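Figure 6 in text form: structure in, sequence out.
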C-alpha cells in the first residue's frame, strides 16, 4: 500500500494460530527500548446492523495512517483477522472473526504471539500498544495479559463491548471477551483513551460511563473529531498528551 511504502514499512503476512495476519513494520526494528504496536480497526463498514461486509479489509485504514505518521521506532502495524486477504484466503476465513468473535480468545492469542515475535526481533523490552476503534478493544485485551507494557493508547474504542452493544441496540458479541472484565490488570498500565466530540459510533455520552469505572486512565475528548475524522491530521501532537 502507498501509505506503508511512503513510511518505509515492510509488508509481511504472518501465520498465528488459524490466521494469516497482514503486518507492516519499520525497515529497521532496532534502536529503541520500546516497540510501538498499532492495531487496525474493525474494517469495512456494515451495510446495516445485521449485514456485515463480505470482505472486512478497511477502505480507510486509519490505524495504518496513524502508524505511518508516528515518529517513534520501531513500529509494528497489525491488521485484523481476515483483512487484506486474496479471494482464496478470504473464503477460508470464517466471518465470525470480523463479527461476533472479533475479540475471541483465539484472536487475542494470535495478536499476542505476533507481538512476541516482533519484540524478540527488535530486541526491545517494553510494548506500547495503540489501537483504533475495535483495534483499541483488542489492544486493551492484549495489554491486560502482558507484563511488559509501557503504555496503552486507544482511539475511538468501545472499551465496554457489552455496554456498547446495548447503547447501539445491537446483538451482544457472543464469543468475544470484554476489556471491562480485566479492570484489575488494566489498572496497572499507563493509558490514554481518545474520543471524538462528534463521534456517533463511540459517542462521549457512552464513554463517560466507562470513565467512571476507569479512574486510573486518562480520557481526552477531542473537539470537532468524529469516529474517523480527523485523527491522522495531528497525530504526533495528540501523542504528546500526558498519560496517567
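Output sequence:
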Amino acid at each position: 500500500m502507498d501509505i506503508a511504502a511512503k513510511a518505509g514499512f515492510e509488508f509481511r503476512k504472518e501465520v498465528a494460530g488459524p490466521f494469516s495476519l497482514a503486518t507492516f513494520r519499520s525497515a529497521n526494528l532496532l534502536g529503541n527500548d520500546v516497540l510501538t504496536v498499532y492495531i487496525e480497526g474493525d474494517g469495512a463498514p456494515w451495510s446495516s446492523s445485521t449485514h456485515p461486509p463480505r470482505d472486512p479489509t478497511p477502505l480507510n485504514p486509519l490505524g495504518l495512517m496513524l502508524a505511518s505518521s508516528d515518529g517513534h521506532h520501531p513500529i509494528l502495524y497489525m491488521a485484523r483477522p481476515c483483512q487484506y486477504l486474496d479471494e482464496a484466503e478470504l473464503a477460508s476465513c470464517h466471518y465470525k472473526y470480523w463479527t461476533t468473535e472479533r475479540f475471541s480468545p483465539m484472536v487475542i492469542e494470535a495478536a499476542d504471539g505476533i507481538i512476541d515475535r516482533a519484540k524478540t526481533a527488535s530486541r526491545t523490552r517494553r510494548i506500547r500498544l495503540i489501537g483504533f476503534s475495535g483495534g483499541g478493544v483488542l489492544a486493551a485485551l492484549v495489554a491486560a495479559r502482558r507484563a511488559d507494557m509501557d503504555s496503552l493508547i486507544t482511539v475511538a474504542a468501545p472499551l465496554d463491548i457489552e455496554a456498547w452493544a446495548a447503547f447501539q441496540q445491537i446483538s451482544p458479541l457472543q464469543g468475544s471477551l470484554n476489556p471491562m472484565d480485566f479492570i484489575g490488570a488494566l489498572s496497572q498500565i499507563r493509558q490514554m483513551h481518545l474520543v471524538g466530540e462528534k463521534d456517533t459510533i463511540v459517542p462521549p455520552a457512552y464513554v463517560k460511563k466507562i470513565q467512571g469505572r476507569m479512574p486510573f486512565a486518562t480520557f481526552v475528548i477531542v473537539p470537532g473529531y468524529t469516529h474517523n475524522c480527523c485523527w491522522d491530521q495531528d497525530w504526533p501532537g495528540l501523542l504528546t498528551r500526558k498519560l496517567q
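Caption detail: The first strand starts at residue 9 and ends at 16.
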